[in-house]
Amino acid sequence: MSRNIFRLKSKWLVLASGSGAVFGLYHYFKPDETECQASINPYFQASTKWDHNWDKRDVSSLIKPVKHESNSSEEKQVSEKKAKLTPTAARHIFLVRHGQYEDWKNDDKDRKLTPLGRQQAAILGQRLKSLNFTYSRLIQSTMTRAIETSNIICKYLPTVPVETSDLLCEGNPIPSEPPIGTWREEYKYYEDGPRIEAAFRKYFHRAPASQKSDSYEIVVCHANVIRYFICRLLQVPPEAWLRFSLYHCSITWVVIGPSGNVCVFSVGDSGFMPQDKLTRA
């Protein structure tokens, strides 16, 4: 896959159905020799500008500014440092929701996958394997349903290193707008929001300059967390996270380019899941 993921044309355009807002260019992209450019409207003004340093890793923020702009020696050193620190690879991240689980139980240790949830995880594992990427790692939430889903996935990807993080646990990131869904006490957002934001800041950023080829990672976590991540990645208001829904064991595929630009290939893709296996709750 070309490193310049923003000059791509799709081989297939898939519109995934479901009760949630699921969309995206998915499955396979190949480089195009021509670049598609939008027409310029001189009367258009963006309501908000893209923050190119959203991950605080833009190369300009990694180098101490030159004290004297007229000093050609210092300017040359800065240019050399920028060249060394400029990323060239993209990061592909597959955000996976866990399988259906026994949500009527109280303790997390008892909230295990249902038989259907285990089937969903197996189908998901087969799907991830069939994509034929060399995954660098799988990161899982510490919650029982995420760990069980990961264990099943790893049967199909046995050589992928596994990491665990409690930052990825399910929670309530921020009050939604409009206020829909189940009412939550304010303190729950106060407790969960900073943790989920910390997970975003830890795992979502452009590749370092030391990474020479595109990477592929799997993150097994939860619907609220994934939806919040997508809003943050696209720099849309994070309170929009409840405006779409995700099926169990669906795949959300995002790419962070070397420049920090973000491309969402799919959100909540479940087209590989048989219809009688689709569940959301």
From TrEMBL:
<keyword id="KW-0378">Hydrolase</keyword>
<comment type="similarity">
    <text>Belongs to the phosphoglycerate mutase family. BPG-dependent PGAM subfamily.</text>
</comment>
<dbReference type="InterPro" id="IPR029033">
    <property type="entry name" value="His_PPase_superfam"/>
</dbReference>
<dbReference type="InterPro" id="IPR013078">
    <property type="entry name" value="His_Pase_superF_clade-1"/>
</dbReference>
<dbReference type="GO" id="GO:0005741">
    <property type="term" value="C:mitochondrial outer membrane"/>
</dbReference>
<dbReference type="GO" id="GO:0004722">
    <property type="term" value="F:protein serine/threonine phosphatase activity"/>
</dbReference>
<dbReference type="GO" id="GO:0090141">
    <property type="term" value="P:positive regulation of mitochondrial fission"/>
</dbReference>
<keyword id="KW-1000">Mitochondrion outer membrane</keyword>
<comment type="function">
    <text>Displays phosphatase activity for serine/threonine residues, and dephosphorylates and activates Pk92B kinase. Has apparently no phosphoglycerate mutase activity.</text>
</comment>
<keyword id="KW-0496">Mitochondrion</keyword>
<comment type="subunit">
    <text>Interacts with Pk92B/ASK1.</text>
</comment>
<feature type="region of interest" description="Disordered">
    <location>
        <begin position="65"/>
        <end position="84"/>
    </location>
</feature>
<dbReference type="InterPro" id="IPR051021">
    <property type="entry name" value="Mito_Ser/Thr_phosphatase"/>
</dbReference>
<protein>
    <recommendedName>
        <fullName>Serine/threonine-protein phosphatase PGAM5, mitochondrial</fullName>
        <ecNumber>3.1.3.16</ecNumber>
    </recommendedName>
</protein>
<feature type="compositionally biased region" description="Basic and acidic residues">
    <location>
        <begin position="66"/>
        <end position="83"/>
    </location>
</feature>
<keyword id="KW-0472">Membrane</keyword>
<dbReference type="Pfam" id="PF00300">
    <property type="entry name" value="His_Phos_1"/>
</dbReference>
